[in-house]
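Supplementary material to the annual report.
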Amino acid sequence: MVPSMVGHGEISAEEYIASMFERIERLDLGIHAYLQLDRGGALDKARALDRRVKNGGRLGKLAGMGVAVKDIICVRSLQATCGSKILEGFFPPYSATAIQRIEREDGIVLGKTNLDEFGMGNTTQNSAFGPTMNPWDLSRVPGGSSGGSGAAVAAGMASVALGSDTGGSIRCPASFCSVVGLKPTYGRVSRYGLIPYANSLEQIGPMGREAESVWLLFEAIAGHDPEDATSSTEPVRPLRAGGVEGLRVGRIKEFFGEGAQPKVKEKVMDGCARLETLGAKVGDLSIASLPYSLAVYYIIAMAEASSNLSRYDGVRYGLSAEKGTVDWNTAFSRTRSEGFGEEVKRRILLGTFVLSAGYYEAYYVRAQKVRELLTREFTLALKKFDVLLGPTMPVLPPKLGEKVTPLEDYLIDINTVAANLTGLPAISVPCGFVDGLPVGMQLIAPRFREDVLLTAAVAFGKGQGLKSPPLAEAA
Amino acid sequence: MKAQRPLSVDARQVERLAELSRLSLNPQEAERLRGELSSILEYFAALDKVDVSEASPAQDGTSGGLRGDKVRPSMPEEILKGVPQKKGRYVRAPKVF
Amino acid sequence: MQAEAGLRVKIGLEVHCQLTALKTKLFCACSSDYRSSEPNEKICPVCFGLPGTLPVLNAKAIEYATMIGLALNCTVANRSLFYRKNYFYPDLPKGFQISQYDKAGGVAIASAGSVDVEGKSIRITRIQLEEDPGKLTYEGTIDKSSYSLVDYNRAGIALVEIVTEPDIEDAREAKAFLEKLRSTIESLGVSNGELDGAMRCDANISLAGGARVEVKNISSFKEVEKALNYEILRQKTFSGNASSETRHWDERRSITIALRSKEEEQDYRYFPEPDLRPIVLQPETIEGVKKTMPEVADARASRYAKEFGLSRQLAKELSANKDLSAFFEECAKLGGGYQEMAGLIVGELSGGLPAGASALPPQEFVGLVKMVESSAITRAQAKEALREALRTGGHVGDVVKQKNMSAVVDERAIAAIIDRVVGARPGALEEARGDKKSFSYLVGQVLKEEPRAQPGVVAKLLAKKLREK
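Predicted assembly:
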């Protein structure tokens, strides 16, 4: 991998990073993964790194790796947009803890990637700056909301990437772009510097073409942070030497339900069989409250979102639509109506509704109770199995611009939201292709057992050969 | 107490939600959202079927995540640089009366 | 006011008290010392509400709120929560205030307490931790300014909100309650109520049978009495027709004004703050705070009565003054005669202890008390010596010697004076036999003749004389 190559002087970090920017220049016009590049800053850091290699200085574990960052994570003095007009002109004066840790390990931030506005979506079409295209088929979506990060690593426009996952936003694009994407255990990675969509559900996580580089990035960003009261002190365990030998894998029946496309289900069943040949023991199980997880997820996520997005009022930062002298209510409404996109408005209104007087008990409180039942069921299931398995996305990547109702759009998150509601770590690994389009397999492990997920991902990826999108190969 | 769950929202409710959220909606937008919100709320009603009598919040037994009462330097200048409208060192906001 | 006797007034207060002893804000490490700062000088990404920042709770704030809870005789919760109170306003950086709450599943850090005010118990509903918003100002006057100016230095300052039951019956009682509350909180060393805006108050007022009216924006305790008197008078004038509403105290014009109905229709959409963990206080932790926190006057008074056998009245007077209490406890370590000691301290030193550590060493003062106790000198002499020593800066013991003070213990000499006093007042002896007052009068007369006589000895001899006859 890159760090050892840089460390051994096989390549210079500057050459490597420069070649990555050249690649971006050639490919990203058609893909639109990046919203903003930091070529100057990145090359400066690469050169500094090369000087250190020459002088025999200490090198970090990510030395020379080019990191694409979802534009919902703050990087000091790079604009943060969240894919929204409302943050116009916002340059955070601080970096997220995850970014500080990456830079401490000599990873190099290349730029900020496209996303659904504030992370609300699964196609990256809800970006105020236009959609991102799937590198495997430019007429299709890359998934979302971390679609820019997924597309960037799939097309080799970054060594690895950071995404954030509130209801599947790392795993969905990982699945649609045929890369590895990990949503860590809730509390594993500091959320400081992650602009919130739904605080109780989301985590920053790594994405990459190989499981090994995903693990490397994960180890760098994981760990307790005093700036995040919900972050955990639980230590990260090393990968298992024995691979998946004896690993108890539980297939969740509901993940293979009616809503899933048959060819997708078949591919994931094949993947399961492959795990078996590698020594895993596969069984089946059912999680009775899973069919309710989507309703629970959307109620809680929208409630938290409606509150999180209240701070965008045009007074302190970002867009200020009203320069005149109208009263504050009118001014706030104008800025917010002009700055937020359609999906964000929809979720603010629904979130406001489920929290409002008279409805709070029926929606928010009830959703929290069902969330507890779901968590209990998963905890029990993970006593019988080491990992739980199913398709990440029940469908293949949809066409760009396909007309669906908001509710239909929400329904494809059915397999991913449970890991966020329960706080469990989950990963999506590439699991073959159907009609040339990627399929992802999802694994879920007990709290703080990302090591189990990555052990399985490494074993599963071995000997598969890394496929690249045709367009990227030509480049 | 039996949860009272409306399956749809009317125009007046949408208006009230928009007001609470400081969003101004034009009539077409409001009508479209009324329909969308209603169908989503109908979907949420599935939760009525779940027996939640057994659910009790898993109680976090430790507080943790606390901070000592130690001053760190503030960073006013960098923050003020990003403020859209200022008057001297004050942040300029719309009038409240 | 006789005609209105039927209209019983019920007042409940919501007191906001900044924990000014904290060095930093409630959820970030910005300095809390903003009063002398330039506008927007004490701000950081957290308290300014920049997106992506997270609140981290100040551990000391938990301790201080616990102390207040204990001092106000509350039950301190083993597990309490923070909620978000959602509303928009230009001075509110996040579009919500992080606050504790006692509904919708919320639990405040302390609840169900009481404060004794002039012999009456005012019940405390709850005490909760929350953050202060920023501050709005205007160029020129509010009504003429076309925009407002915001200073976020105050945003995020730690507050406790103290909510009472509607147990207060008039403005004077409200003021007495607030003064008691302030001195209690100050004696804990967690807040300085003297600082501008450190203690603010909202009130709800209802007349018997009438609606509950909330009066907000009372910026200091001085204004409370004025605001309440105005509002009570206003409601009485409307003879019970006051409607349930929120009114604003206009300090400048000294009237309350109704807020527009739109601003009243608030729906705060409270829900648990997902970025903070619950405040968990083990019983041992609460017990530990109780043991180490500065003692509040009321608790000190009962301890003095119990531990030193002081009379209830004297214990109360002594413990009301923190400095005198401390001096008493220093002296008490050196020896007995506690009632005498406390009496002399309250009687002679209430004007303030002499400045300088050596001005009145406890040993010297205790020596004086012991002289009185052993009847070497009288209490009157002790007082005189003390005054003289404080005036001249001399030693008490020296004054006693110089002035040749000593109690007359020669019982025969005293008996002679008694005979003289009684002889000059025919019938006085008869009266004194059945009446305590007349008896004390005679003792007083004897002491007047001979100030050095011990009152106890005089009384003993006079009683003997009564029995003889």
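Chain A has three domains: 2-247+399-474, 248-290+367-384, 291-360.
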